Amino acid sequence: MIIQIMGNVRFQITLDPSTWIFDDRKEELDKILRNDADEEQIDFSDSKEWNRQIIEGTTKPPTLKSEKKFKKQQLLDGTFAICLKPFLEYAEPVRGEDAMITFTHEADTTTLPYDARHTFYAHFSRDGKQLYEDGLIDVLVIKEGEIETRLEHVSGIRFD
């Protein structure tokens, strides 16, 4: 299932949570809660990686770090989340920092301020499996290493 970012934005974005397992921006949920973000830089001392980067260009989403960092078993057993900040910024809300975001979840809605986007995480994998059979996600608001809010089974994101 895909999730659309729409509403009062310059660009409507379609999110496919099933692809995030290959995205370098994902983090293990327990690392996020420990405030232990991955700051590893890619070292191009190996010419094979450098050549790949030149030939393929800068990939969106980035995958090179994941290919090096996670072994296949970690991907099959891990619990992952990804920060929603870059996706929300790509949509470019017309109202800028004053925008409000409405998350549709389990036949309910919750509105949160756009300027807190750095705290919004999409929890998409638990123990190597999708959270829900339909592929939807939970949105977590994480502040100071604790889950402040959990929006379960999010099916839409709309800017007001």
Strand content: 35-45%
Structural class: alpha+beta
Helical content stands at 10-25%
Number of strands: 10
Low-confidence runs of at least 5 consecutive residues: none
Distance between the terminal alpha carbons, to the nearest Å? 23 Å
What's the number of structural domains? 1
The main pleated sheet reads as: 10 strands, mixed
Mean pLDDT: 84
Give the overall form: globular
Number of helices: 5
Subunit arrangement of the protein:
single chain
- Order of helices and strands, N to C? EEEHHHHEHEEEEEE
Radius of gyration: 16 Å
Any descriptors?
single chain, 160 residues, alpha+beta, ten-stranded mixed sheet, 10 strands
Report on the structure:
This protein has 160 residues and is an alpha+beta fold. Strands 1, 2, 3, 4, 5, 6, 7, 8, 9 and 10 form a ten-stranded mixed β-sheet that branches. The protein is built from five helices and ten strands; from the N terminus they run βββααααβαββββββ. It has one domain. The longest helix has 10 residues. The chain is 21% helix and 36% strand.
In short:
This protein has helices at 29-33, 47-56, 64-69, 72-77, 85-90, and strands at 3-7, 13-15, 26-28, 80-83, 100-105, 108-113, 120-126, 129-130, 137-143, 146-159.
SSE layout and pairings?
Elements: E1 3-7, E2 13-15, E3 26-28, H1 29-33, H2 47-56, H3 64-69, H4 72-77, E4 80-83, H5 85-90, E5 100-105, E6 108-113, E7 120-126, E8 129-130, E9 137-143, E10 146-159
Parallel strand pairs: 1-10
Antiparallel strand pairs: 1-2, 3-4, 4-7, 5-6, 5-10, 7-8, 7-9, 9-10
